[in-house]
Design goal:
Order of helices and strands: HHHH
Oligomer: single chain
Structural class: mainly alpha
Number of helices: 4
Length: about 80
């Protein structure tokens, strides 16, 4: 086997946990704001994951709400300091 083949297999093995294991917060927020994944894809995606679907959806909502508040506060602070 070539060294490139071995590297490819190692990368594949290391990424399995990312795609089929615990979903990171950043990935979950990205899924939440994607119209297709947020409406149709969540059901299909959660069927493949180790996490409970209802828990994952609640976590996604909480993270999305937190992100929106952080972005809105940043915009308000920028607006208050005269920035655009």
């Amino acid at each position: 086997m070539t060294s490139d083949s071995i590297k490819l297999i190692e990368r594949y093995e290391s990424s399995l946990g990312e795609y089929f294991g615990k979903v990171t917060d950043d990935r979950l927020v990205a899924m939440s704001i994607n119209p297709l994944l947020a409406t149709l894809g969540f059901e299909d995606i959660t069927a493949l994951l180790l996490e409970d679907g209802k828990v994952l959806v609640k976590r996604a909502r909480d993270l999305l709400a937190k992100s929106i508040v952080e972005i809105a506060n940043g915009m308000l602070q920028k607006q208050g300091s005269g920035g655009k």
